[in-house]
Amino acid sequence: MLHALTLILLCQLAGETVVLLTGLPVPGPVLGMLLLLGWLFLRGGISEEVGRTADTLLAHFSLLFVPAGVGVMLHWERIQGQWPAIAAALLLGTLVTLAVTALTMAGAQRLLATVGRRRRGAAGD
Amino acid sequence: MRNGYSRPSAGVGGVLPVTETPFTEIWVYLSASPLLWLTATLVCYLAADRLYRFGRGSPLLNPVAVAVALLIGILTVTGTPYAVYFDGAQFVHFLLGPATVSLAIPLYRQRERLGALAVPIGAALLVGVLTASLSAIALAAWLGADIATQISLAPKSVTAPVAMGISEKLGGIPSLTAVLVVSTGIVGAVFGTGVLRLLRIRDDAVKGVAMGVTSHGIGTARAFQVSPTMGAFSGLAMALSAFLTAALLPSILDWLGLVGG
What residue of A is the nearest CA neighbor of B203? Predict the structure, then answer.
């Protein structure tokens, strides 16, 4: 647990440091995730301990959003003043994004499958 | 309490007037320490999670939404400012970073499928990221939101720490963005699986990518409940879309004339 947690924090720290040094537009933890992914590929596997620690952290991922969510308290006035716009963006915008993303990926998969079949067909002729 | 005073036989009644003052003293002491609000956050989340299970995992009882509502109720009743609450809750908030890093693990476990699906995932990410920010800005602008609100809404599909950073850099309000991010996550988690069913999407990889691009970590938490595959792809999509949004959004806002003018 302690080793795994240290590894994860080191990756985050490295990510934050690189972002500070280079001014990359991505946040430290996201870069840290890619660093950890690179490390796993280098090592050629996940130790049981690292796997268990990550699973524990991710099992309650949604808990971690609660403190930020309570921050809605700070913005009652702005939200009250502009609620139709905010509600539309949150509801409609989110559902449209979900549908468009899913359909794009499913469509791209189907397209690739068709192209692949055609190629195989051509090779078979 | 009042009944206790009038019933000396209860034994407790005699003690109550004495505990009255210590209680306020204890409250003053505890409400200023991080322990109280850290514990309250966990207790409210566990209660919300229990309710969610009790409601057989109905997405309408989203644990984040219920926990937030409970906490706001408690803070309002006790007259506690958000800053005091956050002093305690920041320890939970901090774990967002390490949890984001540890998304590498479910990703690594899916490495074989990932390679095979690189092209469809890339297409979905690009289209999804553009749709997420442009639809939010367009709808908000059309319905009369001011520019600060529009910018704060633009990164709403990206995981909280990333979205807050983007919002701050571009002239939005980071704490408002955090709230909008959480709300977007809840909307996706509540309605997402239903929408995907309506669209007849059955592949867990596709469902996961759509959920992750749209609803970041909260959607990913929901995706993990459906299947580990959907969760892993959601985590991947969330991470990559955070990168892509951070890279693209400055140019998009610039092009729309929302920043730098």
Answer: A106
Extents of the domains making up chain A? 1-62, 78-125
Q: Which residues contact B34 (CB under 8 A, 6 or more apart)?
A: B87, B88, B90, B91
Domain boundary among B73, B99, B125: B99
Sorting pLDDT into bands at 50, 70 and 90, what band is B2? very low
Residues B35, B151, single domain; the answer is no
Domain assignment of residue B261, yes or no: no
- Give the burial class of A42: count Cβ atoms within 10 A of its Cβ; 0-12 exposed, 13-18 middle, 19 or more buried: exposed
Evaluate whether ipTM surpasses 0.90. no
B85 contacts A70? CB cut-off 8 A? yes
A11 alpha carbon, distance to own chain's centre: 16
What global pTM score does this model have?
A: 0.80
Q: Which pLDDT tens digit goes with each residue over A5-40?
A: 999 999 999 999 998 999 876 778 888 988 999 999
For A102, which of B75, B159, B207 is closest by C-beta distance? B207
- The domain containing residue B241 runs over which residues? 102-256
Residue B59 near chain A (CB below 8 Å): no
In a domain, B87, yes or no: yes
Terminal Cα distance for chain B, rounded? 62
Instruction: Please check whether residues B129 and B80 belong to one and the same domain.
Output: no
For B141-148, what is the mean pLDDT? 92
pLDDT in tens, A41-54: 999 888 889 999 99
CA A116 to chain B, closest CA, distance in angstroms equals 13
In a shared domain, residues B204 and B252:
yes
